[in-house]
């Protein structure tokens, strides 16, 4: 007679401690995201807990219901994030998924450790996370991967790892179309007012701008290029610098509608008329572009579709389905309104 196979150990703290070769208090520290544990010890405990299918007490108490995911935004007040939020919520309603929205921005790593954040998500019954524009660090990714929590990033500030799914738009093509539009209107003195310099989307838009100037034989003036935040205040401050130059630009490509709104306000304060004295193009095509006076020409990103696509990819990961490409890019298009016009020829006497 053959011996019956022994039953697998029960998923208890004591069994995890025994199999990992550590004490029960150490297991508790790891599972609660404490940082005062050696990395190799943490890896062993998490590996064993995963093998035993350990679930925290809060997970065992949870009442079965809709799948819940977390949406992390840098800001809940920006037009950009609002559009993405609407896309996520619309798709979530169709898919029967609950969404918990949080706003943490770049301060999240300082307020809570990656291990604590990942464990809190498990304890609260979250199944995955969509992150919008935040700098998602490698330590955060590892903490989520160890707990099998999928993450999808929209327009990441820093290049995501090969295992992270990211969703964005054709930023290079959008930057090229914005600049080409101004060139076709006769402009040669074209400034670029970008957002965060090293962010992926900003770099792509800048390179689209530079590529167009190079193709058209226009020398790029370094005084016409500036970087900062994707906020109106940055547009205002940079516009002051540009308008103080001996030779003002005749057109500006702003890397976001928010930046363009700041430029538009400063132009008005200095008595410059848009588009007669200055043509202006934004990026995103949010409600700010439609509400601006004059209405803003802008590169349209399908922001709501990007939000829906990110959640769709996340749900596929949660369900164990293939997601195809790790990088999803949706097409941009130029929406011409009232803020751009042909360059008026210099009048001679």
Ordered list of secondary-structure elements with their pairings:
Elements: H1 13-20, H2 24-31, H3 39-51, H4 57-61, E1 67-73, H5 79-95, E2 97-103, H6 108-111, H7 114-123, E3 129-132, H8 138-146, E4 151-154, E5 165-169, H9 171-184, E6 190-193, H10 200-215, E7 225-226, H11 232-243, E8 251-254, H12 257-269, E9 279-284, H13 287-291, E10 297-300, H14 303-318, E11 327-330, E12 333-335
Helix pairs in contact: 1-2, 1-3, 5-14, 7-8, 9-10, 11-12
Task: Give your account of this protein's structure.
There is one protein chain. The protein is α/β, with parallel strands linked by helices and 349 residues long. The protein folds into three domains: 11-42, no CATH class; 65-169 and 303-331, Rossmann fold, CATH 3.40.50.2300; 171-302, Rossmann fold. The chain is 43% helix and 15% strand. It is built from 14 helices and twelve strands. The protein has helices at 13-20, 24-31, 39-51, 57-61, 79-95, 108-111, 114-123, 138-146, 171-184, 200-215, 232-243, 257-269, 287-291, 303-318; strands at residues 67-73, 97-103, 129-132, 151-154, 165-169, 190-193, 225-226, 251-254, 279-284, 297-300, 327-330, 333-335. Helix 12 links the parallel strand 8 and strand 9.
């Amino acid at each position: 007679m053959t011996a019956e196979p022994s039953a697998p150990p029960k998923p208890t703290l004591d069994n995890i401690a025994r199999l990992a070769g550590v004490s029960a208090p150490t297991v508790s520290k790891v599972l609660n995201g404490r940082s005062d544990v050696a990395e190799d010890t943490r890896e062993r405990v998490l590996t064993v807990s995963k093998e035993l299918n350990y679930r925290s007490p809060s997970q065992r108490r949870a009442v079965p219901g809709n799948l819940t995911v977390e949406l992390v935004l840098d800001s809940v007040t920006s037009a950009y994030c609002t559009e993405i939020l609407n896309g996520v919520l619309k798709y979530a309603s169709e898919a029967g998924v609950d969404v918990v929205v949080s706003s943490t921005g770049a301060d999240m790593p300082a307020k809570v450790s990656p291990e604590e954040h990942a464990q809190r998500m498990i304890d609260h019954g979250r199944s995955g996370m969509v992150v919008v524009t935040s700098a998602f660090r490698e330590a955060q990714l590892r903490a989520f991967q160890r707990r099998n929590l999928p993450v999808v990033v929209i327009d990441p500030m820093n290049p995501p790892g090969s295992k992270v799914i990211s969703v964005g738009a054709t930023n290079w093509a959008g930057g090229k179309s914005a600049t080409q539009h101004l060139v076709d209107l006769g402009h040669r003195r074209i400034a670029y007012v970008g957002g965060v310099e090293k962010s992926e989307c900003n770099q792509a838009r800048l390179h689209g701008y530079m590529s167009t100037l190079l193709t058209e034989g226009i020398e790029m003036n370094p005084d016409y290029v500036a970087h900062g935040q994707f906020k109106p205040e940055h547009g205002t401050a940079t516009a002051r610098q540009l308008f103080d130059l001996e030779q003002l630009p005749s057109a500006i490509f702003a890397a976001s509608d928010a930046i363009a709104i700041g430029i538009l306000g400063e132009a008005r304060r200095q008595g410059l008329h848009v588009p007669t004295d200055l043509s202006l193009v934004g990026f995103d095509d949010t409600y700010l572009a439609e509400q601006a006076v004059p209405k803003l020409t802008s590169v349209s990103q399908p922001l709501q579709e990007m939000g829906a696509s990110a959640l769709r990819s996340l749900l596929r990961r949660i369900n164990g389905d293939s997601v195809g490409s790790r990088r999803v890019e949706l097409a941009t298009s130029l929406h011409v309104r009232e803020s751009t016009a042909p360059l008026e020829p210099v009048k001679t006497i």
